[in-house]
Design brief:
The protein has 555 residues and is mostly beta strands. It is 4% helix and 34% strand. It comes from Gossypium arboreum.
């Protein structure tokens, strides 16, 4: 069956650049300075708009949008059309696998709608996607497998987090004031657990401002849940709120559709001695940036676009008396993605300066990413933020970003239109581009991991060593090792995003081959590092190596 492709109207580049930089976007101080970082277009069209995105342990990207968007720009292989009813079939792909190394695209088959859903990874590296539960294994010819009975309640706009036992908790969703677990292995997994906090933080049924709640696993095994303007600490096993945190200053919503973003700042593990694997449990600190007014969505629907905020807040959720520490981004932003870099810095990217999340309700795309340094190298606190080089492509509602193992950040999506529309004010975007953070432009040498011992499967508390190469001498004070959890990104949230700075000693050895060797320990507990796949990086003078995939679990 031959299916016609949707034709995309290509605008003259000079007109596009003029429109972006002058008329309808926010570029920070154009011409005033030379920005760090650079952009590269990887693929003009992957056939679908990258609304959801995940990097598999085999280095392939899986991305998908809603299947109700109508025709995409890529068809399924011959004979794989999905029969919708007795008279019609859908022969368009709504999900693809993308290989960043070769830029090859493989269409994938989705049998039911993905809508605005969530996801996380199982211990074996399988992508588990939830709305309806789907599984995607990291193998050469794998495709989506669906489990229509995987959830007790349908959940759109929910959030996921991997837990210390490897299960995935799914929290909230539209009209869902509960949580549950994937997979359903025991009787306790087949229960809907009520969470009144989700109803208490809803502004209204029409504009909840508490969807896609921010979830972070605390170092004490409890779950931090943030919705609207406040957070709680949830003992999800006993279905008990064990702590309520102060309302974030301003009393304004930070969640969908007044969409901000959140990260758990790096967990720094330090050995108590150089000779053992005893580490002190680090504090867990959360960063939340961006928001817009509670009525911004309603006003935008009648043509009034409220400016987004510059506001950010940090909260140490394990502190005895936690208080918010507030600061401001250099640029107003709503719908920004916060992507943790291997160095421990955070990239704030995508989004708009006015409006809110939703169909056609945002204006002034923010083209400049911002780098946030949780621990600036000098005493000037303003140096926590740095404005970086702008893109030429607006990334608004339904855009995504994801860290790649080579240190680049993959950026895609943006479709603030109900269907695929290439002539709208902000057209449906099918492209993928890569942002190169400032560490790519530095003249210092980049380290390279040669080997991980005893291997790529690692147990908790296990002693490990990294053999690496580096041109020139090693500066011990500027050397550390990080471990990044597999994540799933959509709607300005990187679910399960988690970076650990590992406990390595302050000695570097030379091997017989002339390489360098450092030794340290894997995290002590699954509360620090839930089991599964991680990217291992060695950072020297703020420049990371390419990531090496490892699997951590209880052996």
């Amino acid at each position: 069956m031959s299916v016609p492709q949707v034709k995309r109207k290509i605008m003259d580049p000079k007109i596009l650049i003029f429109m972006l930089l002058v008329c309808c976007s926010s570029v920070f101080n154009v011409g005033a300075q030379s920005y760090q970082g650079k952009w590269k277009l990887l693929k003009r069209s992957i056939g679908v708009s990258a609304m959801h995105m995940a990097l598999l342990p085999n280095e392939k990207i899986v991305t998908f949008d809603r299947s109700e968007f109508g025709p995409s720009n890529i068809t399924l292989p011959q004979g794989k059309c999905i029969k919708e009813d007795s008279k019609s079939s859908d022969c368009y792909a709504h999900s693809v696998e993308f290989d960043p190394a070769t830029r090859a695209v493989r269409p994938l088959t989705i049998l039911s709608d993905t809508w605005c859903s969530s996801g996380a990874f199982s211990i074996d590296g399988t992508l588990v996607q939830s709305g309806v539960v789907r599984y995607f294994k990291p193998c050469m010819d794998c495709d989506w497998e669906e489990d229509q009975n995987g959830l007790l309640s349908p959940r759109w706009y929910a959030s996921n987090q991997v837990l210390p036992d490897g299960k995935i908790i799914v929290v909230g969703g539209r009209y869902q004031f509960t949580y549950e677990f994937i997979p359903k292995l025991s009787g306790s997994d087949r229960i809907l657990y009520k969470l009144p906090f989700l109803k208490e933080t809803r502004n209204s049924a029409l504009v909840p401002n508490n969807l896609y709640p921010f979830l972070h696993l605390s170092t004490d095994e409890n779950l931090f849940v943030f919705a609207n303007d406040r957070g709680i600490l949830l003992d999800y096993i006993n279905n008990k709120v064990v702590r309520s945190y102060p309302v974030m200053p301003g009393g304004v919503p930070r969640n969908y559709p007044s969409t901000g973003s959140s990260v758990l700042l790096p967990l720094k593990l330090f050995s108590t001695t150089d000779s053992d694997n005893n580490t002190s449990t680090p504090d867990a600190e959360v960063l939340i940036c961006g928001w817009t007014a509670p009525d911004s969505n309603e006003k935008a629907n009648v043509g009034v676009f409220v400016p987004a905020s510059k506001s950010c807040g940090r909260l140490i959720i394990t502190a005895a008396s936690p208080e918010w520490e507030m600061e401001e981004m250099p640029i107003n932003r709503v719908m920004g993605d916060m992507i943790m870099l291997p160095t421990g810095d955070i990239l704030i990217i995508n989004g708009a300066a006015k409006g809110t999340a939703g169909w056609g309700v945002a204006r002034d795309p923010v083209l400049n990413p911002v780098l946030y340094r949780p621990d600036p190298r000098n005493s000037d606190e303003s140096s926590r933020f740095e404005v970086l080089a702008p893109s030429l492509i607006p990334r608004l509602y339904h855009s995504t970003a994801h860290l790649l193992s080579d240190g680049r950040v993959l950026v895609g999506g943006s479709n603030p239109n109900i269907n695929y529309n290439f002539s709208a004010l902000y057209p449906t975007e099918l492209s993928l581009e890569a942002f190169y953070p400032p560490y790519f432009t530095k003249t210092k040498p980049r380290p390279s991991i040669v080997a991980v011992n005893p291997g790529l499967k690692i147990g908790f508390k296990q002693k490990i060593s990294l053999e690496f190469t580096l041109e020139g001498s090693v500066i011990l004070s500027d050397l550390f090792v990080t471990m990044m959890a597999s994540s799933f990104t959509t709607h300005s949230i990187a679910m399960n995003q988690r970076l650990l700075v590992l406990a390595f000693n302050n000695k570097v050895k030379k091997t017989s081959s002339g390489n360098y060797l450092v030794e340290g320990y894997a995290p002590e507990t699954a509360a620090l590092a839930p089991p599964g796949y991680y990217q291992l990086f060695l950072v020297h003078e703020a420049i990371p190596s390419k990531g090496k995939w490892i699997q951590i679990k209880q052996f």
